[in-house]
Specification:
This protein is an alpha+beta fold and 99 residues long. The chain has one domain. The chain contains two helices and four strands, in the order E-E-H-H-E-E. A two-stranded antiparallel sheet has the order 1-2. The protein has a two-stranded antiparallel ribbon with strand order 3-4. Strand 1 and strand 2 form a beta hairpin. The radius of gyration is 15 Å and the shape is globular.
């Protein structure tokens, strides 16, 4: 079986690494916003596997097309002085599987 990469925040559409218009549209409320904000900090790295497993389980319980692994990818874009352009870097924050 061939690997297929989908974006669970975009209801299974093909994954892209392009910057969205607004990230806030994918966050389900203020508590989730704070959770996901902490998720990025190194001090809270321990919560990443829990969220990864939760998101994987939620997807499989609510969709007919099942997934067996999930990678949480963060596109880090630094702000430089004088609004200089910088190429975002891809950081894989967590990987999890159904096994």
């Amino acid at each position: 079986m061939q690997n297929k990469y989908i974006d669970i925040y975009k209801e299974g559409k093909e994954t892209t690494l392009e910057k969205p218009e607004s990230v806030i549209q994918y966050i389900r409320g203020d508590r989730w916003r704070k959770y996901e904000e902490n998720f990025l900090m190194i001090d809270y790295e321990y919560i990443r596997p829990y969220y990864c497993k939760y998101a994987l389980k939620q997807w499989n319980e609510t969709h007919s097309e099942k997934i067996d692994s999930l990678s949480i990818i963060y596109m880090k874009e630094r702000t430089l002085p004088n609004y200089q352009k910088v190429i975002p870097t891809k950081e894989i924050l967590c990987n999890c599987t159904t096994k």
